[in-house]
Write a structure and sequence with these properties.
This protein is an alpha+beta fold and about 210 residues long. Helices cover about 20% and strands about 35% of the residues.
């Protein structure tokens, strides 16, 4: 996907319900730390920054830091102006003996880059095995300028009822308008998908239903 299309998410009908946005670009890489090396998943992210709203208005704080405030962070998230800083997942850091301030080398094909470990992150998920860097740094290393592989969108929604679970294709025009104008996770996802060219938007059901309740 094109990173430049992300602000389109803030133009949908339920744009004021969108409270978080975190794009990423991930690919396998070889991480070397001293005499140790390991094949890892390199993830380029927005950590914590502001995104202007199309048409003006207050900027939206975006990235994984505001989207996942329950992640445990030792150190400090790399700032957007720190392309040489990285955050290491807790499990990855434990295996390679990484500490804050350590320098690592990341290789993808014939391209290499060095990063300083500025944070060690424990999420309880797959991120614990990743090396996370600023999105722009990953795009440069992977030879994918301006590209992303996915984006997490957080929006305030209402719990799904029987009507909200219906298939929009089977609705009458009036029913579809009611569904479209109700902030169900399904209707918001459809609007996000329509706004971002080439995308497919899928609800993260476990999180969506818990947050809606």
């Amino acid at each position: 996907l094109d990173e430049r299309d992300l602000p389109r998410v803030l133009t949908i009908f339920w744009r004021h319900a969108v409270v978080g946005l975190a794009p990423s670009l991930a690919a396998p890489a070889v991480l070397s730390a001293g005499a140790r090396s390991e094949r890892v998943l390199l993830a380029g992210l927005w950590f914590d920054r502001s995104l202007p709203r199309p048409g003006g208005g207050p900027e939206l704080r975006v990235g994984v830091a505001p989207l996942f405030p329950f992640w445990q962070v030792q150190g400090a998230w790399p700032a957007p102006q720190e392309p040489g800083h990285a955050a290491a997942g807790f499990a990855l850091a434990a295996r390679l003996g990484l500490r804050l301030g350590d320098e690592v080398e990341v290789a993808v094909a014939d391209r290499k880059a060095r990063f300083v470990v500025a944070a060690i992150v424990r999420t309880g998920g797959f991120e614990d095995d990743e090396l996370m860097v600023n999105l722009e740094a990953a795009q440069a290393l992977l030879g994918q300028p301006g590209r992303i592989s996915r984006a997490m969108v957080s929006a305030v929604t209402v719990p799904l009822d029987a009507f909200g679970r219906r298939e929009p294709a089977d609705m009458t025009r009036r029913e579809f308008e009611k569904w479209f104008c109700t902030p169900y996770v399904t209707s918001v996802a459809r609007q996000v998908q329509e706004a971002v060219p080439g995308s497919r938007a899928r609800p993260v059901w476990s999180m969506a239903e818990a947050e809606a309740r």
